[in-house]
Amino acid sequence: MLTIYDIAKKAGVSASTVSKVLNGRPGVGKKTIEKVKQITEELGYYPNSIARGLATKKSKTVGVFFEDHLNSGFRHPFLQDILASFKDVIGAHGYDLIFFTNNHPDNHVETFEARARHRNVDGLFLMGIPRTDKNLDAIIASNIPCISIDLDLCGPRANYICSDNIGGAASAVEYFISKGHKKIACITDFFATKPGEDRLVGYLRAMEKHGLSLKKEWIARSDFSDQGGLLSTRKLLDSDPSLTAIFCAGDMMALGAMRAIKEKGLAVGKDISIIGFDNISLLSYVTPSLTTVSQKKEAMGEMAAKELIKLMEDPYYRADPITIETELIIRDTVCNLVENS
């Protein structure tokens, strides 16, 4: 069996030098690096990642936990964009990804921490995990470097990244109000997620700021699916036909809301105005084009990777939560009641 000692003998260097080259560690000259790599390729030597991990106490892998309430898996457009940019940055630093399934038979008996340690990952990336998950305290206490998206996970080796969900939601409601809307409903989520709760807060703050009356039946809770938006909008319009606008905490909700409005024989953007949240790529196929709050998904993925690398590679790094600004994208689903009055 070919070993690094065989490489070292042929290259005329020590085994430790070969190890440094193969693991990308400093302290080796450029010519020696090129020579070792050339001989490695000639002999067809492939380092054993498990053995290397035992020697360095690093597996160069990152575990990804994703809890999917809607069973859409990695097909969800918001998730796709974040994961793509996260993978690019983490991969460029020599790390591979391990995806932990959320329907594994051991899920009910093994914690996130236990599964992460079993796979010997260097860090964790969490998405879609609700604040109420009983495993989160153990993850924070474990000191396994961890970064999360839209989950306020804080600890010595844990940090999180989120969009300005409160500000983004408030900007959507402010835009409705600037167009003369006063009877504005909100569809948020019932999963106790940070984005859902924060977007509801933004809606409430904007309504209160402008002294608008608010009926409890104007707030509907749903999941983040188009079906959830459809059912919620049906209830909203049945309970109060005088509503003129609906803010949806997610674009998929908004697409369902648009369908419900059309079912009522009403026109989206004329009879009832809609604003979503996310700016998913699917919107380019929707008519009328949806006004929405855009999240910088690629930037979130890149920042998550960079923060996790710091947490994994610098034991003294102490991170602060990162909030990324949003942008209201104005399209065709909000009518101007001021002009029509």
TrEMBL record:
<dbReference type="InterPro" id="IPR028082">
    <property type="entry name" value="Peripla_BP_I"/>
</dbReference>
<dbReference type="InterPro" id="IPR000843">
    <property type="entry name" value="HTH_LacI"/>
</dbReference>
<keyword id="KW-0238">DNA-binding</keyword>
<dbReference type="GO" id="GO:0003700">
    <property type="term" value="F:DNA-binding transcription factor activity"/>
</dbReference>
<dbReference type="InterPro" id="IPR046335">
    <property type="entry name" value="LacI/GalR-like_sensor"/>
</dbReference>
<dbReference type="Pfam" id="PF00356">
    <property type="entry name" value="LacI"/>
</dbReference>
<dbReference type="GO" id="GO:0000976">
    <property type="term" value="F:transcription cis-regulatory region binding"/>
</dbReference>
<dbReference type="InterPro" id="IPR010982">
    <property type="entry name" value="Lambda_DNA-bd_dom_sf"/>
</dbReference>
<dbReference type="Pfam" id="PF13377">
    <property type="entry name" value="Peripla_BP_3"/>
</dbReference>
<keyword id="KW-0805">Transcription regulation</keyword>
<protein>
    <submittedName>
        <fullName>LacI family transcriptional regulator</fullName>
    </submittedName>
</protein>
<feature type="domain" description="HTH lacI-type">
    <location>
        <begin position="2"/>
        <end position="56"/>
    </location>
</feature>
<keyword id="KW-0804">Transcription</keyword>
